[in-house]
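Appendix B: complex inputs.
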Amino acid sequence: MNSQQPSPIPCETCPAHHAANLLKMGVDMADWDYVVALAGNPNTGKSTVFNALTGLRQHTGNWPGKTVTRAEGGFEYSSQRYKLVDLPGTYSLLATSLDEEVARDFILFGQPDVTIVVADAYRLERNLNLVLQVLEITDRVVVCLNLMDEARRHGFQVDDRRLARDLGVPVVPTAARYQQGLDQLLQAVSDVATGRTVCTPHRIQNEPPRLKQAIHLLVEQINQAFPGLPNARWVALRLLDGDERIVEAMQKGELGVLSRGSSEEAQPHLDLKLEATG
Amino acid sequence: MNTLSDFQPEEILKKAQALRWEVGGDFHEQLMEAIYTEAARIADRAVTRPGEKARFDLDRAIDGVVTSRLWGFPLMILLFTLVFWITITGANVPSKWLSTLLIDTVYPALRVGASNIGLPWWLSGFLIDGMYLATAWVVSVMLPPMAIFFPLFTLLEDFGYLPRVAFNLDNVFKKAGAHGKQALSMMMGFGCNAAGMVATRIIDSPRERLIAMLTNNFALCNGRWPTQILIASIFIGALVPPYLAGLISALAVVGIAMLGVFLTFGMSWALSRSVLKGQVSTFSLELPPYRPPRVLHTLYTSLIDRTMYVLWRAVVFAAPAGAAIWLVANLRIGGLSLAEYIINFLNPVGILIGLNGVILLAYIIAIPANEIVIPTVLMLTVLITGMHGLGAGTGVIFTAGEASTYTVLTAGGWTLLTAVNLMLFSLIHNPCSTTLYTMYKETGSRKWTVVAALLPLVLGFTVTFFVAQVWRLVAG
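Resulting structure:
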């Protein structure tokens, strides 16, 4: 038997096998390979997903706004270690409140390798507002279409394939409470993290023409100043909205760091920020 | 750099400030409205509420038919038959033009030119009768079918049909103990087996990847389609009245391709139950949206990327092979040429399996590229049937495309059995040297590369042997 022989454990590549061997590492987050952020509207089962993956017993409750600051945990999947950051549940990322700011800053400056947006399949329209906003900031997104059980109970059919096509990112239907669909979710996360899946996120195109013109002018300048910035359009929108935090980031050159795409360099800013707010 | 980035942010902020006045105070509302409208639109497309009829989705509707249990396979066969029928009937005319031009006009002119400038007979023979003629043959026989087949195939690919084929086949692969993604590497193999070898990288499990590699050769590659199409149209098509000839030849080619698919399943099944035992992996296959193919773009890329690529490869290999053929035909030991010695030596085995020594020699010469099997067979047959003396004689023989090919081959002792067995052997024999080299590079294993070469070869001999025996028994 030499090393070219076929593997004696043939099922080691099957997703189900991974799920069975998902190592829930609780608060042990040493030497992670990838950082995964968990965003979503309040009360969509984000914490249930978080607990299912990390084995932690974060308090879950059926009421919105339970997770105010972020929680962190670790898991290992497919011999890669992941740090999972549970962000506060928010309806938008326009940073009009503290929890929105925490979530927004982490997705923007923390540059997670993947952002899972947990969406309520039964209340999809409302949840998509947040999904669309996340897609403006980062393109490495997996949508976890949770509470499929509830939607089905109400006789709703949700076409996840159509949704994935429209959003341009993987969409995985789950029922986290019953541990359904989590292995597919892990597979999708690992595919996006390792770059096997390349997302082409949907960006909003339907602003009024006046606005579009202004955005266009600004995006051009931003792209010149920070070539390679993945979300110039979003930054332009924030500047037009007079977002203090983004104005500050631009003055301090934090955006320049982002455009060079190095999460290590961006990390200190993030931690400072989160310690200050959390 | 520093001064630049220090300077620009302030500029941008100033600009933003100015633009804020222009867009007005309801900016935030406008933006939110845009997001909400978009969210509502997307949600509406995806959600079907109780009491509502599921939204009509053209993609879903098409998928319902082409991946249905009942219609999936028949539709697949129908589509491929149609593609080959168009290829076979459409290739005749341009094939004839090319052969008139390259062989009836240019070839004699070259010979006249060569004798005018006083080239020695062996040099003009080597260059013109050997290298030029083989190349001209490859171009006139292969270019027209390829120029029709590849664009059609690429159109199907662009439309999004191939992943549906993979979807249809997935279940069968699973039953055969192989990875469903093997359907995709097999599809690549229908283009080029070397590319198919590389395509097996998408299979993570080493066991299933090896199965996919060992069976990839059963997917007819570019180099073998022309052989199948030509032999089918001159031997099988000739069995029926002319108006049916195109259809019947197309069906024969589809039949061989289907046999290849069945062999892939059978061999995968056998391997996964013997030397490569193990569990089947699961995976998810994304069915991309159907898109109207961009016809002009497709025509351009399939002509440049595929047709020209394959043709170039054929020409590159055909020229030296033509030279080699000319050499073995003209190097004489005693009264016989070297080619005749080899052919006589191979003949007993060849006849036993319903082929002949010429075909076997052609397959040895064609190890680098399957594309040149037919030209090699023709040239060798011309040599040994005494339609000899590559000069004026060949000029006459190589005229008028298929009809003369038929004359040459029947003069070489070909029967319907030879044609059928050649089609079978072309499907089931060792992969070309490029494919084997690719496999060696991919696996790093000498052992498995040898298996990949010998397994189909042994199977090919076995199949043709039995077909020949049964045929002779039945036909008397």
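The longest strand of chain A covers residues 34-40.
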